[in-house]
Amino acid sequence: MTTFIDSHAHLADPAFAGDLDAVVQRARLAGALATVCIGASLAAADEAAKLAAVYPDFLAYTAGVHPHDAEGFDADRDLPLIRAHLDAGAVAIGECGLDYHYDNSPRERQRDVFSAQLGLAAQLARPVVVHTRDAEQDTADLIREAAAQAVVGVLHCFTGSRDLASQAIDLGWYVSFSGIITFRNWTDTALLRLIPDDRLLVESDSPYLAPVPNRGRRNEPAWVAHTLRRLADARDVPADVLGEITTANAVRLFGLAIPGQ
Fold first, then answer.
1. Residue range 26-42: mean pLDDT, rounded
2. SS3 assignment for the chain
3. What is the pTM of this model?
């Protein structure tokens, strides 16, 4: 069986409230060795921590503040709360970053909040999960500053330019692909081949962005198998080999404890 790690899933989302046990079971049966449950807000991180305690051999979790919520961020209040989650077992900071597509928070505020979380990552030597949309130059500038302080992270659900991906790779960062790459309108096969083996991750971003053949349904970690096969086809490698590669990368980035890894 092809195995993999779902490096980014929102399993604390209410969409999974009624059947999470079944979702986890299907993921295991599909080959998932672990899933990183994203705390994209402090409330979501609290819920993700509870889930990680229920599924300690399958779920890891993160804590951070998404750019959509940057306007309500209070550094004196929120940075210690993120740090407390990291002390309690969270494996990364995030999802944080910049989103100039929706602009749900002012851009200057987004940059300040992203920078604050990158600064915490530098202090604690923890990885960062980054959301970036229509904000390539500012993203590149901020992760370059963070990398100078030995911060490593992942650009998740990547749909940006090859230039931004190359800059991230040069800084030692990772790039993750979601079910978007299975969509009919995805045409950038060259980008799928650009990322070096040791900097590549896969994810569901569930409950969003279900891959073909399940597009339009609530996404779940089991379906990362479809994304992995699409990525393997583009890179001309067997899916089981790419599964091993991306699993090793997720283990390395997040410090996951996976038997046999």
1. 98
2. CCCEEEEEECCCCHHHCCCHHHHHHHHHHHCEEEEEECCCCHHHHHHHHHHHHHCCCCEEECECCCHHHHHHCCHHHHHHHHHHHHHHCCCCEEEEEEECCCCCCCHHHHHHHHHHHHHHHHHHCCCEEEEEECCHHHHHHHHHHHHCCCCCEEECCCCCCHHHHHHHHHCCCEEEECHHHHCCCCCCHHHHHHCCHHHEEECCCCCCCCCCCCCCCCCCHHHHHHHHHHHHHHHCCCHHHHHHHHHHHHHHHHCCCCCCC
3. 0.97
